[in-house]
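Bench notes, bay 3.
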Amino acid sequence: MMISDASHKLLFKQTVDGIYSLSDEDFDAFFELFKPFSAKRKEILTYSGTVEKNLFYIIDGLHRMYYSDENGREATILFSYSGNFGGVLDSMMSQRASIFFYEAISPSVFLRASFQQIELLIQTRPAIEILLRKGLISAFSGVLERLVELQCFSSEEKFRQLLKRSPHILQIVPHKYLANYIGIDASNFSKLINSVQI
């Protein structure tokens, strides 16, 4: 699904404004760094062991970040979808190798900007750095909340919290990935859905 450039820009601006409002000049300079890109279903955008080079902005599609151990066991860390920034942010900001994979679960249309270009822009437009910092603080807060869920919540409580954060997630994320995110076997996920009044 392709959307017009004007629609891309509007969606992008709504997301940016939700984090930190930029002047028109700063916003235009930031937006100009982002170029259209597409990915196929199941395409890996960032591999574990590589440094994240890009900041992604999702126009259409569903992505997930996950960890995979030496035995092939996976742990889904987060989902990103239309109207979200994405990528392996800790690797991008530190320029260290990622321990995560970043994958397009569905065919995707997005915008991406190289972190190298963003860093250059920050030197002349400090408001962009404030935007990134506020975005990272929000992401970090989400990670801390998720840690509490993992350590203290039952599977049902985790599922309820996920639905509270993202009520539409059942319609867009395959259930096997939701089960993995919650930390239960996929075969038990339908039982969990039936036991929770949505």
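Next record in the batch:
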Amino acid sequence: MRIEIPEHKRLVFEMDIPIRWGDMDAMGHVNNANYFRYLETLRIEWMCSIGCAPAPQGEGPVIVNAFCNFYRQLEYPGQVLAKLYVSDPARTTFESWATLERTDQPGVVCAAGGATVIWVDFPKQKAAPLPDWMRAHLQG
């Protein structure tokens, strides 16, 4: 199945993720929980690549909503090409979107998901405005 990413979403990062033998379940395909792990890995690697390292005593991103739609099974062995898109920066939030496809089947999306991200002041446990440097990454 081919998925169109709407224009207002901007590609910001992509990476390959190996499918591990242990990612599969008794049915012989990647367990649905592992798709969320792939999406999490993609978001974290992007965050680290732009200098947004975890800062438990400061501010940073928190996922408040996550989803994944499954279109085709992923199976071992293989590599997943994960692509991350962002959109809709608001005062304290932005949207992230992702596609997962096998590297040996370019353009054929096996799953697509996303997450709403909120910027948080961790010591205060409250939402905080997106910093200018993060907004610049989101808007390109």
